Amino acid sequence: MLLESAADLVIVGEGRNGEDARRLARELKPDVIVMDVTMPLMDGVEATRLIKQELPEIAVLALTIHEGADYFFRMLKAGASGYIPKRAAPEELIRGIQAVAAGNVFLEPEVARDLVADYLIRVRNGNETTSYDGLTEREREVLTYLAEDHTNQDIANHLGIAAKTVERHRENIMHKLNLHSRTELVKYALRKGLISLDE
Q: What domains are there in the chain, each with its CATH number?
């Protein structure tokens, strides 16, 4: 009812579980999927991961009763662009859908606070620094190029090395930094100041 009352939103489909979500995503290709976390057959985390692999252009906004950091980070890692607890005000949900549809990240204020707190703990423990310090000079160069969306062949041409060597550096970087997707890599590069949003 809330979404139907929003003038700029059109509901194109509704599913009961993660399998429905995948099927409808393929059939309808919506701009945004509002995804529950706990569902039968396939949960929202796995459904999000698979949908983002197949259809990366679809934005996923998690709407859930779960407010623990574990669920939050699992959904972000799976590719969700936003996370809103069901207790949030209705206008927050509308804002969240509009934000992720525009390509932005949307976090309800308390969720954002948890994300910042987690980041500060990692900084205090030295994880952010040590992970980057563990990269070789060449790996740092490759990391920056990857974050700027260059292909392996482009990077190979820039650095005068083989494309297979670039791929090996990429695997080492992902392993050393504990990253699992290009999105995570870009976020890491932004945090480290290796690239800027203007680029």
A: 18-120 (3.40.50.2300), 126-191 (1.10.10.10)
